[in-house]
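Supplementary Methods. Inverse-folding protocol.

Structures were first reduced to a C-alpha cell string of length 241. This string, shown here, constituted the complete conditioning input.
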C-alpha cells in the first residue's frame, strides 16, 4: 500500500505542478481552479478508460491482419494511440463546468493542457508500476523521461486541439474548424512516440530529441497564451477608453 501511494505521488505530483504552471501563465482573468480540476480529472479518468477500450478494439483487427508484433506495436504507438488519445482528451472542454469558462481564445490552450496532464498522470502511474521491477536507477531514469517528455507532450498536443475548439466556439465556427488543430495534436503525439519508442537514431539520442521536442511544444503553447492574454487586455482597455 505504501509503495502504491508513493508511486501515485510520483506520477501525479509533476502533472499537477505543470497544470498550475500553465494555468498561471495567464496574468489577467486566470481560469478558476474548479474548471482546471474538472479538465484534469477528465483526462485522468474518462479519457484514459475510453482510450484503452478504443485502442484494444482498433488494435484487434490490425494484429489479426498483420500477424507481426513489431509491426503491430509500431502501428499502435505511432498511429492508433495518437489518434485515439487526442480524440478522447479534448472532450473535457465540452463539459459544462469547463465550457462556460471558455470566454477567451487562450483558454482552450489552458484547458486542453490540463486535460492532457490528467491523462499523463494516470499513464505515468501505469508505467511506474512496470518500471519499479527494473531497479532503482532505471526506474528513476524512466520516470524522469515520462515526467518531462510524456507530461509536456500530452499537455501540448491536447492544448492544440483545445485551442481549436475554443476558437471555433468563440468565433462561431463549425466543429470542422477544429480539424487542423486536431491534426497538429496527432502529428506531434505521433512524432514523439515514433522517436522515443523505436530509437531510430539510437538510445538516448532519440529520447533526447523527443524530450527537446516536447519542451519546444510547451514553450510555444505558453508563448501563445501570453500573447493572447496581452492582446485580450489591450482590447479590453481600448473598449474602456
Amino acid at each position: 500500500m505504501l509503495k502504491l501511494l508513493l508511486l501515485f505521488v510520483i506520477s501525479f505530483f509533476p502533472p499537477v505542478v505543470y497544470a498550475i504552471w500553465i494555468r498561471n501563465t495567464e496574468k489577467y482573468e486566470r481560469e478558476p481552479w474548479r474548471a482546471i480540476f474538472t479538465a484534469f480529472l477528465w483526462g485522468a479518468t474518462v479519457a484514459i478508460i475510453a482510450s484503452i477500450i478504443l485502442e484494444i478494439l482498433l488494435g484487434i483487427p490490425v494484429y489479426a491482419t498483420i500477424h507481426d508484433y513489431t509491426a503491430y506495436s509500431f502501428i499502435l504507438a505511432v498511429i492508433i494511440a495518437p489518434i485515439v488519445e487526442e480524440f478522447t482528451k479534448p472532450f473535457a472542454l465540452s463539459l459544462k463546468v469547463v465550457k462556460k469558462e471558455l470566454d477567451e481564445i487562450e483558454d482552450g490552450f489552458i484547458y486542453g493542457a490540463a486535460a492532457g496532464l490528467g491523462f499523463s498522470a494516470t499513464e505515468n502511474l501505469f508505467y511506474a508500476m512496470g518500471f519499479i521491477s527494473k531497479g532503482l536507477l532505471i526506474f528513476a531514469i524512466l520516470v524522469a523521461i515520462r515526467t518531462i517528455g510524456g507530461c509536456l507532450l500530452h499537455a501540448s498536443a491536447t492544448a492544440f486541439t483545445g485551442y481549436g475548439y475554443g476558437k471555433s466556439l468563440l468565433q462561431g465556427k463549425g466543429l470542422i474548424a477544429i480539424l487542423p488543430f486536431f491534426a497538429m495534436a496527432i502529428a506531434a503525439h505521433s512524432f514523439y512516440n515514433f522517436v522515443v519508442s523505436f530509437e531510430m537514431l539510437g538510445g538516448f539520442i532519440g529520447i533526447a530529441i523527443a524530450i527537446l521536442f516536447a519542451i519546444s511544444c510547451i514553450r510555444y503553447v505558453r508563448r501563445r497564451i501570453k500573447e493572447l492574454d496581452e492582446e485580450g487586455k489591450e482590447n479590453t482597455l481600448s473598449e474602456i477608453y
